[in-house]
Amino acid sequence: AYLADDFEVTGPDGGGGEEPGPVIPAAPAGLTAGATTTSSVALSWNAVSGATGYKVYRDGVQATTSTGTSATVTGLTADTAYQFSVSATNAAGESVKSAAVSARTAKNGTGPVTTVPKHAVTGYWQNFNNGATVQTLADVPDAYDIIAVSFADATANAGEITFTLDSAGLGGYTDEQFRADLAAKQADGKSVIISVGGEKGAVAVNDSASAQRFADSTYALMEEYGFDGVDIDLENGLNSTYMTEALTKLHEKAGDGLVLTMAPQTIDMQSPENEYFKTALATKDFLTVVNMQYYNSGSMLGCDGQVYAQGTVDFLTALACIQLENGLDASQVGIGVPASPKAAGGGYVEPSVVNDALDCLTRGTGCGSFKPEKTYPALRGAMTWSTNWDADTGNAWSNVVGPHVDDLP
Predict the structure, then answer these.
(1) Whole-angstrom Cα distance, residue 5 to residue 9?
(2) What backbone torsions phi and psi does residue 322 show, to the nearest 5 degrees?
(3) Contacts for 272 with CB less than 8 Å, ≥ 6 apart
(4) Mean of pLDDT values over 18-40
(5) What is the overall mean pLDDT for the chain?
(6) What is the pTM of this model?
(7) Is domain 120-406 in CATH 3.20.20.80, yes or no?
(8) Is 274 exposed, middle or buried, given 0-12, 13-18 or 19+ CB atoms closer than 10 A?
(9) For 285-313, what is the mean pLDDT?
(10) pLDDT-based confidence at 237, cuts 50/70/90?
(11) Catalytic annotation present for 19
(12) Of the listed 160, 223, 235, 245, which one is catalytic?
């Protein structure tokens, strides 16, 4: 016979056991290399069950960590091949490394590898909270082909810019996750650029020294974060001579992969003699698109000399005609509008009106009283301020305009 004290009952039937602790996760699968710059490689992989983090290795040496399933390895040498692997971690330890993938950084002067589609939708992403929906880059809908991160910051040195993520204003969005989301967007074929200016932006490029600082600091941000280029949104004026010099120097550094966009106000594009217009024409050889802001301006002259009120299809088409008939290629012209009435003081039009304007300019249909003498099938597309205000209305703007831009001739 056995006494009760001679043994104990354990396990699920007896109830005397302990819950099992975490086990070391499996090695990640699906590691792939995405967008590259001269100094960085974007990586992504499949999630691993039970993992709480990941370690990324470059040539067998840990390069960075991530809490998600993507990361960008920076600080690399141009035109150099590297091998990358990743492991999964949790409280129990670290998995074995994944199968390695190879990637080569871009050559100096070749620029980023992402390309802008023939017809493109541009959206400004807000690095601040002004009452619109707060987003991560990952939240930006797939309809957007170019995402302009708004905004860079001016330093005390004229022409120099920097960038600091507003983590507190964006609900704790970390710099690490921002970089990973940026790389993931590029891996999906999107261009992510840094926007300079805005309503309160004060970046002064008024001599050769400040032009050099602008080019150097912008390129440094492209190297550090992987930005594909820059957006010029200077609403307080610019000097065409020295901004052209700055952008030319930047293009020499970044190469033909540079994505260069501009967002002048309507008054800035009324004549090719205006400083903004002169800058666009002077950089035409490598300019991607000018998305003029067709809002917050009141009535303006169209290319036929008639006055048109903002908030109408005629305002969009007759003012676009000025750029189209005065030196810019149709592929360098886009229509910039607010995503919602809250996004601007005036000039909002329904997304369907934007589509009418696009059709009028590219197909000759959907026009109002103004009808251009010819069509411009290569028109680049449309822009909105902002992806955040778009999200505020359930992405009503991009859900309508995005597919239409894709279907342009």
Answers:
(1) 11
(2) -60, -45
(3) 278, 281, 326, 327
(4) 83
(5) 91
(6) 0.77
(7) yes
(8) middle
(9) 96
(10) confident
(11) no
(12) 235
Q: Which pair of tokens denotes residue 389?
A: 């205000």
Hunting for tokens 């205006």 — which residue is that? Answer: 274
Mean pLDDT, range 311-330, rounded to an integer? 97
324 contacts 370 by C-beta, under 8 angstroms: no
More confident residue, 160 or 201: 160
Distances (CA, A) of 57 to 26, 79, 88, 226, 247: 16, 19, 11, 19, 36
Q: Domains of the chain: which residue ranges?
A: 32-104, 120-406
User: Shortest CA distance to 261 belongs to which of 293, 230, 282, 240?
Assistant: 230
Answer whether residue 10 shows pLDDT above 80: no
Which amino acid belongs to residue 106? A
Cα separation of 399 and 340, whole Å?
A: 13
State the Rg of the chain over Cα. 25
Average pLDDT for 347-352: 96
- Strand 70-73 and strand 101-104: pairing? unpaired
Rounding to the nearest 10 degrees, give the CA dihedral for residues 289, 343, 164, 68: -90
State the DSSP code for 377: T
Both tokens of 355, joined, read: 């589509």
Q: Could you tell me the two tokens for 362?
A: 């590219």
Q: What is the pLDDT of residues 245-263, one digit of tens each?
A: 999 999 999 988 899 999 9
Query: In this structure, what is the dihedral angle of CA atoms 275, 280, 282, 285, given to the nearest 10 degrees?
Result: 180
Asked whether residue 199 carries a pLDDT value surpassing 70, the answer given is no
CA-to-CA distance for 228 and 188, rounded, in angstroms?
13
How is residue 323 written in tokens?
A: 């750029």
CATH-assigned architecture of domain 32-104: Sandwich (2.60)
Q: pLDDT digits over 53-85, tens only?
A: 999 999 999 999 998 998 888 888 888 999 999
Angle CA(241)–CA(204)–CA(167) in degrees, nearest 5? Answer: 135
